[in-house]
């Protein structure tokens, strides 16, 4: 029987230049997927050296997109920071060079240049060519505390680069080695001169064969990460310089106050409740079950503000963000709850018959940084997002309990303000519970989906998509043009509440928000269970204008405050409708920005003045156009929203959506020059 032919669309969703889609005929797709039946030892391939990294880069870095590209920078910077944790590095310079490569230079001890017995190579060559080789293993290692424990950082960066150069100043000499084509050395490490200082400089060029999406470093992304690193390492000076373009730009970060200054920075657009940042720090030696004695260092900085927020606790271990928390956060929470309730009863804020304040009450409006240093951290999972060392819980709890209790006793005026804030949070929580119960009884249950929702027929969340659409007109077209099996449509009537300002009782009573809560089906706030979401793609689809941007921000603010796991898990997307349409020889062509429009005109060889249409809203598209440009999985473009730095994201949401006007004015003044296509 003749093989069935299947038509597929060959698209590159990452490439904005991909305006015209190519159709290919594929014969016998099942045969292409079928493996060779002959399977013996000859099928086993041993990857040598750094081949494994290039073969499966996703096993070693986040991905091969923009996040993975910048992960290379973090690996080298973290090595310099490890030198700082060891007490030897005080200055770090990160430079984006004119050719697009990047350099990281530190004044630490310098990578060892003598021969490593196990490899027969110099310490530099070993670190950059051998996986799991480094000075962070076992007794007698070069570091008591470090962020990376696997010894793969430098070698992975080398493996995924077109070329990499390492210069080391150590013991009076200057040493140099170059690697090319994914980590192959061009000769051995050589002494190239004398040096009266010490340190390491690494320069590398990311390989475009690996990073096919982009090899262009984002200055703002690096700036945000380096600023956070400087906050977490008091006194370390980090300089970022960008030599690309006509005028170089540079930022310097150095914070003698460490995480205390970090809290002030995050609260810069909020009104503090306690004027001074509360700081607790200390170190304790712990004897483990195996008899080993380890010293754990902990520091905590905290400040309450008048901004509603129960998710303002950010935790780190050895400078690594533990966004899922862990035992250090557990220890802090228990100490905070115990201390707040103890003083609330002492000062009669709580009566004898009153229930204790719960954790969310105590953390309402709180911005807190928890940073621990541990010689042998254990994380749950490979992503290092949750600290698992049980001994850390007691260490943090002891330090915070003792020092926070002392602060409360010595600062009665500040404590009264803090306890009043906690009391208001408790009252608001109880009012919100009543509002939720009223909403649940009135109709907001999973068995009674909102009437405006046009649900999909599939019940498999992994293939289901919820489009939250601006306006009834666009919602009607989306309902007509969608794939009703997997795509659900929920139209919004205007703009939802700004949940950064509104109280919770009002939020839960809002019909539009209630519709979203019910449609998504996983609860809200502390009861939100991401495993119960009914759609694995929640797509915000608004007009490509200022109002559409505002609606997107309002929705993202809501998700960030009340359904944060949606963002952490990458379930939220922004649809990208085209901005322009050109009809040419009976076919429609679409462009998503001005640059694409000009390239399209040139590709079609259009004469000046050839007519084109600029869409002002989704309602201008009919159902067929909306499907083929914005909803068809084979042709659409979407932006996936993720939260890489929760603390920075919270600050941005506060700046843009909070009560303080000044940060918004500053943002507008700094960014107004970049605005195009302003509808007035």
- Gross morphology is flat
* Strand count: 24
* Rg over CA atoms: 28 Å
Helix content: 25-40%
Number of helices: 20
Main beta-sheet annotation? 9 strands, mixed
Task: Describe, in plain words, how this protein is organized in 3D.
By secondary structure, the chain is α+β, with helices and mostly antiparallel strands. Helices cover 34% and strands 21% of the residues. The strands form five sheets. Strands 3, 4, 5, 6, 7, 8, 9, 10 and 11 form a nine-stranded mixed sheet that branches. Strands 12-13-16-14-15 form a five-stranded mixed sheet. Helix 4 crosses helix 5 and helix 12 packs across helix 18. The longest helix has 31 residues. The chain is flat, with a radius of gyration of 28 Å.
Question: What descriptive keywords fit this protein?
Answer:
680 residues; single chain; nine-stranded mixed sheet; alpha+beta
Give the structure's gist in a few sentences.
The chain is α+β, with helices and mostly antiparallel strands and about 675 residues long. The chain contains 20 helices and 24 strands. About 40% of the residues are buried.
Secondary structure layout plus pairing:
Layout lengths: L4 E6 L11 E6 L1 H5 L17 H5 L10 H20 L5 E6 L5 E5 L16 H7 L23 H7 L1 E10 L2 E8 L3 E2 L4 E5 L4 E8 L12 H14 L4 E6 L6 E5 L5 H8 L11 E10 L5 E12 L8 E5 L2 E2 L5 H20 L12 H5 L2 E8 L16 H21 L1 H31 L22 E6 L1 H10 L5 E6 L11 H5 L2 H10 L16 E5 L4 H17 L1 H5 L3 E4 L4 E5 L2 E5 L2 H10 L9 E2 L8 H9 L6 E4 L4 H12 L4 H10 L9
Helix pairs in contact: 3-5, 3-6, 4-5, 8-10, 12-18
């Amino acid at each position: 029987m003749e093989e069935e032919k299947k038509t597929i669309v060959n698209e590159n969703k990452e490439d904005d230049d991909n305006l015209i889609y190519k159709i290919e005929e594929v014969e016998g797709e099942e045969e292409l997927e079928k493996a060779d039946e002959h399977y013996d030892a000859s099928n086993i391939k041993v990857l040598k050296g750094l081949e494994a990294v290039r073969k499966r880069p996703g096993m070693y870095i986040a991905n091969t997109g923009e996040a993975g590209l910048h992960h290379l920078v973090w690996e080298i910077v973290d090595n310099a920071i490890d030198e700082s944790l060891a007490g030897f590095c005080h200055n770090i310079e990160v430079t984006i060079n004119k050719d697009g490569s990047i350099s990281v230079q530190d004044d630490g001890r310098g990578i060892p240049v003598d021969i490593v017995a196990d490899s027969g190579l110099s310490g530099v060559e070993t670190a950059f060519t051998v996986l799991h080789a480094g000075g962070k293993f076992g007794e007698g290692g070069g570091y008591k505390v470090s962020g990376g424990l696997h010894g793969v950082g430098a070698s992975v960066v080398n493996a995924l680069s077109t070329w990499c150069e390492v210069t080391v100043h150590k013991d009076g000499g200057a040493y140099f080695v170059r690697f090319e084509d994914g980590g192959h050395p061009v000769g051995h490490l050589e002494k190239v001169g004398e040096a009266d200082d010490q340190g390491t400089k690494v320069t590398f060029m990311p390989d475009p064969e690996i990073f096919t999406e982009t090899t262009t470093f984002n200055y703002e992304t690096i700036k945000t990460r380096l600023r956070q690193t400087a906050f977490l390492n008091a006194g370390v000076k980090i300089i970022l310089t960008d030599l690309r373009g006509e005028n170089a730009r540079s930022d310097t970060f150095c914070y003698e106050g460490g995480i205390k200054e970090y809290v002030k920075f995050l609260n810069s657009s909020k009104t503090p409740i306690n004027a001074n940042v509360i700081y607790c720090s200390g170190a304790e030696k712990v004897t483990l079950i195996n008899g080993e004695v380890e010293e754990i260092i902990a520091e905590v900085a905290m400040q309450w503000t008048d901004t509603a927020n129960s998710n303002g606790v950010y935790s780190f271990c050895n400078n690594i963000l533990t966004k899922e928390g862990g035992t250090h956060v557990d220890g802090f929470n228990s100490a905070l709850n115990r201390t707040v309730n103890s003083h609330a009863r002492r000062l009669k804020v709580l009566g004898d018959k009153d229930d204790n304040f719960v954790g969310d009450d105590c953390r309402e409006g709180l911005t807190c940084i928890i940073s621990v240093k541990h010689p042998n951290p254990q994380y749950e999972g490979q992503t290092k997002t949750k600290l698992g060392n049980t001994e850390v819980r007691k260490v943090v709890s002891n330090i915070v309990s003792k020092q926070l209790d002392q602060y409360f006793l010595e600062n009665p005026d500040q404590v009264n303000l803090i306890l009043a804030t906690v009391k208001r949070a408790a009252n608001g929580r109880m009012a919100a519970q009543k509002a939720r119960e009223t909403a649940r009884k009135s109709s907001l249950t999973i068995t009674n989906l909102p009437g405006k929702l046009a649900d999909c027929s599939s019940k498999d969340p992994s293939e289901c998509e919820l489009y939250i659409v601006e306006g009834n007109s666009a919602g009607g077209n989306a309902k007509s043009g969608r794939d009703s099996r997997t795509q659900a449509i929920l139209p919004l009537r205007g703009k939802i509440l700004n949940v950064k300002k509104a109280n919770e009782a009002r939020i839960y009573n809002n019909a539009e928000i209630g519709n979203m809560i019910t449609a998504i089906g996983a609860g809200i706030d502390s009861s939100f269970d991401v495993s119960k979401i009914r759609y694995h793609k929640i797509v915000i689809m608004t007009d490509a204008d200022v109002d559409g941007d505002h609606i997107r921000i309002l929705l993202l603010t809501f998700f960030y405050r009340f359904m944060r796991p949606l963002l952490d898990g990458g379930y939220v997307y922004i649809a990208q409708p085209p901005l322009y349409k050109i009809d040419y020889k009976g076919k429609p062509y679409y462009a998503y920005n001005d640059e694409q429009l000009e390239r399209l005109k040139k590709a079609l060889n259009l004469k000046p003045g050839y007519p084109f249409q600029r869409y002002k809203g989704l309602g201008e598209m009919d159902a067929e156009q909306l499907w083929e440009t914005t909803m068809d999985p084979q042709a659409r473009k979407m932006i996936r929203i993720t939260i890489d730095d929760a603390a920075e994201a919270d600050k941005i949401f506060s700046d843009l959506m909070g009560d303080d006007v000044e940060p918004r004015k500053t943002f507008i003044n700094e960014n107004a020059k970049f605005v195009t296509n302003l509808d007035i």
